[in-house]
Amino acid sequence: MEENQGKNKEFYDNCTQYFEFLRKKGATDYDFEDEYYFTMPAISSH
After folding, report:
1. Rounded CA separation 45/29 (Å)
2. Which of the residues 4, 5, 29, 36 has an alpha carbon 20 to 30 A from that of 45?
3. CA geometry: angle at 38 spanning 8 and 33, to 5°?
4. 26 CB contacts (<8 Å, ≥6 apart)?
5. pLDDT at residue 14 in the model
6. 30, 45, 36: which is closest to 13 by C-alpha?
7. Vertex 20 angle, CA 24 and 4, to 5°
């Protein structure tokens, strides 16, 4: 279970970096954002 938490944190950290990159660039990726906000509740509950 701890391994999943590590993977979830890595996923979250990577997404945060990606969103920060997009923000600085002034770009959007709505397809990814949709997937991210759909996925986060599932991995956050574990």
Report:
1. 25
2. 29
3. 90
4. none
5. 94
6. 36
7. 165
Q: In sequence order, which ranges of 1-46 are alpha helices (DSSP H)?
A: 2-25, 30-44
Name the packing angle between helices 30-44 and 2-25 (round to 10°). 150
For residues 3-17, b (16+ Cβ closer than 10 Å) or e, as one string?
A: eeeeebeeeeeebee
Structure tokens at 41: 């509740």
Q: What is the pLDDT of residues 5-36, one digit of tens each?
A: 888 889 889 999 999 999 999 999 999 999 99
